[in-house]
Write a structure and sequence with these properties.
Order of helices and strands of chain A: EEEEHEEHHHHEHH
CATH topology of the largest domain in chain B: Butyryl-CoA Dehydrogenase, subunit A, domain 3
Strand order of the largest sheet of chain A: 6-5-7
CATH class of the largest domain in chain B: Mainly Alpha
Number of helices of chain B: 7
Radius of gyration of chain A: 20 Å
Structural class of chain A: alpha+beta
Strand content of chain A: 5-15%
Distance between the termini of chain A: 21 Å
Oligomer: heterodimer
Shape of chain A: elongated
Radius of gyration of chain B: 23 Å
Number of domains of chain A: 2
Helix content of chain B: 55-70%
Distance between the termini of chain B: 7 Å
Order of helices and strands of chain B: EEHEEHHHHEHH
Number of strands of chain B: 5
Largest sheet of chain A: 3 strands, antiparallel
Number of strands of chain A: 7
Largest sheet of chain B: 3 strands, antiparallel
Bound molecules: zinc ion
CATH architecture of the largest domain in chain B: Up-down Bundle
Shape of chain B: elongated
């Protein structure tokens, strides 16, 4: 039996085919899903996203040219610029939503799943799973990327902005992170833990 | 009609750590029960969900006023500061003919935060008044609010990018205004409010009626 997260209605769990999802009959909320090789897939996407995270943060994000001056920007140099400009609160917010939250989310996924695939139960799995569920709200890679596009239009009159390797890595990381999140089936995690015990 | 088969009505508690159902037991004063599979503290509903959500929503309403009255971005040229509020920023974009971008910012910074605050207020009131009106639609509304909230950060990210990119030196400067801080506070407070609201409360009212 499983209870709906949104309305508490009880449902009998049924076998699903790979890639299928089960929804609540009362409120339409997602009950559970079945992903083929959920753990392996999640781990693969999370590691790929982590590599892309490094590239996105270490290489140039965009070139900004204004009146003949060309400036190279990374994500972090933007945060530094805000901090130096006296907008510490915004700097922290940007740093948290585009750098810290995605990184924590990826590291927690790897921390939980890698030991499970190797045959050990990592300490604090329940906390880690809950953390993965709630940190997602604060990882705003998609919103940030849309803001970059808006800024390109707004500044287009006076300056030239060109996206560089870092930006493409950032978009790829966003895709890999989404894939990791949607491959993670908490049912598979707990089934694996029960198998190990 | 018989009582709906919810976990609570059948004496079960859904663990919010691992989703396993546990039987509710009578506990002595000060005692607590935790999940046998993952050890998370068992709670039938989110504790103090209504009062916490109310507190966060009211705080968000309070921050909403200065967020819209004060400039989110100040551009100074030769010592002449010129501030743009969210609304005047959108206006400028429409005047320049940037319909898509202006519409996007209008939707993300004006429509979404207001719709989100009003929806949360409506959900809170409906639970408090024990409404049995369209629980399914109210739950869907909650899920929309939960999903869409983060997109109102859009304009704050745009402001940050512009401030970080443009350092024109002595002639002109671009700085974030006080409105930006308040606006970011509105977004964070409403995100937290959506997280602390327990949508199962909408359905609890239904059971009490039957
Ligand atoms: Zn449901």
């Amino acid at each position: 039996m499983i209870a709906c997260e949104y309305c508490d209605l009880l449902h009998r769990e049924r076998e699903l085919a790979h890639g299928q999802k089960a929804y609540c009959s009362a409120c339409g909320g997602l009950l559970y899903r079945r992903v083929e090789n959920s753990l392996e897939r999640t781990l693969a996407f999370a590691i790929a996203a982590l590599v892309l995270f490094m590239v996105a943060n270490l290489s140039t994000f965009m070139l900004f040219s204004l009146e003949g001056r060309v400036q190279e920007n990374t994500i972090f140099s933007g945060v530094e610029g805000l901090w130096a400009g006296g907008a510490q609160a915004l700097a922290l917010l940007i740093c948290f939503t585009t750098i810290v939250a995605p990184l924590l989310s990826l590291l927690t996924m790897i921390y939980t799943i890698l030991p499970l695939l190797l045959g050990a139960r990592p300490p604090g799995v329940a906390g880690a799973m809950r953390f993965i569920g709630s940190i997602g709200t604060w990882a705003m890679l998609d919103v940030f990327m849309l803001a970059v596009l808006v800024a390109i239009v707004k500044l287009g009159m006076m300056a030239r902005l060109e996206l560089q390797v870092g930006a493409w890595a950032f978009v790829a990381m966003m895709v890999a992170m989404t894939a990791a999140g949607s491959s993670l089936d908490s049912g598979a995690v707990w089934a694996r833990i029960e198998e190990l015990e | 009609m018989s009582a709906p088969a919810t976990a609570a009505a059948r004496g079960l508690i859904r663990c919010h750590g691992c989703e396993r159902l546990s039987r509710r037991r009578r506990l002595g004063a000060g005692a607590s029960a935790s999940c046998s599979r993952c050890g998370t503290l068992l709670q039938q509903r989110q504790p103090d969900s209504l009062s916490r959500t109310w507190a966060l929503v009211i705080a968000a309403y309070i921050c909403y006023v200065p967020a819209n009255l004060y400039p989110v971005m100040v551009f100074s040229r030769l010592g002449q500061p010129e501030g743009d509020t969210i609304l005047s920023g959108v206006q400028v974009m429409f005047e320049m003919g940037w319909w898509a971008v202006g519409g996007l910012i209008f939707f993300a910074s004006i429509v979404v935060p207001m719709a989100k605050l009003l929806s949360l207020t409506g959900l809170l009131l409906s639970v408090q008044w024990r409404s049995s009106w369209r629980p399914r639609e109210r739950t869907v509304l909650y899920r929309v609010v939960e999903y869409i909230g983060r997109w109102s950060m859009l304009d704050m990210f745009v402001v940050s990018l512009m401030v970080a990119l443009i350092q024109l030196g002595a002639v002109a400067t671009m700085e974030p205004g006080i409105g930006a801080t308040f606006f970011a506070a509105v977004v964070i407070l409403t995100l937290l409010a959506a997280l602390s609201f327990d949508p199962r409360l909408i359905w609890d009212q239904m059971e009490e009626r039957e």
